[in-house]
Amino acid sequence: MKVDVIIPTYKPEKEFAELIHRLQQQTYAIHKIIIINTETGIFPEKLETEPYPIEVIHIKPKDFDHGGTRNMGASISKADIVLYITQEIGRASCRERV
To answer: Alpha-carbon distance 33 to 3, whole Å?
Structure first.
């Protein structure tokens, strides 16, 4: 079974890259990480060039909607299972497996 992770972001901080790194180390391989970033001029561009399957979609702040943004991620996913997380999960539990 394929698993995709969908993460809506807004001004992701440096800890966000660590969260992505931890997701890539999961024992059950993640098929794709789908990041839906609300454009603010702040985004770690390095993540868009990772060799790992990451898809980044930038949206305008006026287009962000908690449910609608998550539905957008689900419509992009082709996985059997979709896991939604927030960017803040990395702050509190980055040392633990997500």
So the answer is: 9
Handedness of CA 64, 15, 74, 32 (dihedral sign): positive
Can you say whether the dihedral through the CA atoms of 72, 77, 78, 84 is positive or negative? negative
Give the residue from 7, 3, 1 showing the smallest Cα distance to 32.
Answer: 3
Find out whether 39 and 63 touch, Cβ atoms under 8 Å: no
Is the predicted pLDDT of residue 46 greater than 60, yes or no? yes
This prediction's pTM: 0.83
Cα 14 from chain centre: 14
Distances, alpha carbon 58 to alpha carbons 23, 29, 66, in Å: 21, 25, 15
Sheet (strand 3-10) strand order:
54-59, 32-38, 3-10, 81-84
